[in-house]
Amino acid sequence: MKRALFISSIIVIFLIGIYLFGLKPKPAIQTQENGSSTFTIWVYSSKLVNSVEAYKKENPEVVIFMKKMKSAEHLVEELKLANSSGNTPDMAEIPSLYGIFPLVENVSLIPVNEYVEEEFSASLIEVIEARFSINENLYAIPLGYEVPILYVNSNKYNDKLNIQTLQDLWELSDSKTPILADAMYPWYKLNMLPPDFTEEDQVNGEKLFFPEYSSMMALTDFVNGHAGVLISSSSKLHLLEKLIGSTFKWEPMAFPSSSEQLLVNGSGLSVFQNRDASKETIQSFFSYMQEKDVIFKMSVEETQIPPIKTVAESDRYINHFRQYPAYQLSIKQSLVKQGFDLSSEDEMRWNQVTDE
């Protein structure tokens, strides 16, 4: 009997030991105390929100504090305030049109070259890489970009349109078939006028649709059939498809420009100098964001052009938009364009065009 009790006691002690061992914090959780498995990230695009959530599911040991901003403009302003008080996140999504140069200039950001994998780097598309690079240092890993595009109400025209130049576009505008441009018109305008256009050309063109026809309601007016052409972003392709349906016949057309340069609208993921996250944690997330399947998914979700040629030129991506040959053409055109280098004048130029 005593022998049986002794054996039972040993078994109970053994089971209690296993139970207590199970309660011991896992090494990954313990490392959260020094931040090595924790990071903060500020974002504004839905595609990045979804990617962060997917990464969390695959890496449950990593604690992520994500702050979603309502717009790229809002995020830039919040970063300025946070930077002045030393409260920046570990990482942040930053728009390509403006906002990143001051953070590079005051050494708030670190180059991300060491986090970029060789295959990704070799395949980067120039027009988006240029918006985040200075002196061969990359200050954000590009996540994708969009290009200006024309959406044409085919019911407004008897013949198929042939728009090769800005003059062709401007001549289409009249009171019955106006050209509309949405609230991002400063971006379209910066892409519109190649260097060989005279000041008179610019003035004549702007009288037709800038800024009189530019408004937050431009997309709505086009969807309701009140315009001949909508100047907007390629990212609106699936949205217009959903909103218009079979109401009227419409088609996207490539944006006319004779310039060899293209200012794209996209975003990149940056790392801040004042950070708590470990290098290993940042590398893990950056490696995930460079996976081709992740890039493809983000690009399809928001109708953005992938940042690397190996995905942008793939049949898998191109064929996804086979019903829109004009968009496929816009993708291919962007791959051979020269980019606009990152400049201290980016924000000033943007504000100047916005205020005109």
What can be said about this structure in brief?
This protein is of the alpha/beta class. The chain has helices at 2-23, 27-30, 46-58, 72-85, 101-105, 118-123, 126-129, 166-171, 185-192, 199-209, 218-223, 237-244, 279-289, 292-301, 309-312, 315-318, 325-335, 346-355, and strands spanning 38-43, 63-68, 91-95, 109-110, 133-134, 137-138, 141-146, 148-153, 179-181, 229-233, 250-254, 261-262, 265-272, 338-339.
Strand share of the residues?
15-25%
* Residues in helix, %: 40-55%
Distance between the termini: 97 Å
What's the helix count?
18
What is the structural class? alpha/beta
Sheet with the most strands, sense and barrel status: 6 strands, mixed
Radius of gyration from the alpha-carbon trace, in angstroms: 25 Å
Tertiary shape: globular
Average pLDDT confidence is: 84
**Total beta strand runs:** 14
Low-confidence stretches: 12-35
Written account of the structure:
By secondary structure, this protein is of the alpha/beta class. The chain is 44% helix and 17% strand. It has 18 helices and 14 strands. The chain has helices spanning 2-23, 27-30, 46-58, 72-85, 101-105, 118-123, 126-129, 166-171, 185-192, 199-209, 218-223, 237-244, 279-289, 292-301, 309-312, 315-318, 325-335, 346-355, and strands at 38-43, 63-68, 91-95, 109-110, 133-134, 137-138, 141-146, 148-153, 179-181, 229-233, 250-254, 261-262, 265-272, 338-339. The strands form four sheets. Strands 1, 2, 3, 4, 7 and 13 form a six-stranded mixed sheet that branches. A four-stranded mixed sheet has the order 9-10-8-11. A two-stranded antiparallel sheet has the order 5-6. Strand 1 (38-43), helix 3 (46-58) and strand 2 (63-68) form a beta-alpha-beta unit. Helix 3 runs antiparallel to helix 14 (292-301). The longest helix is centred in the N-terminal third of the chain and has 22 residues, at 2-23. It is globular. The termini are far apart. The model is unreliable at 12-35 (pLDDT under 50). It comes from Peribacillus psychrosaccharolyticus. The chain crosses the membrane at residues 6-23.
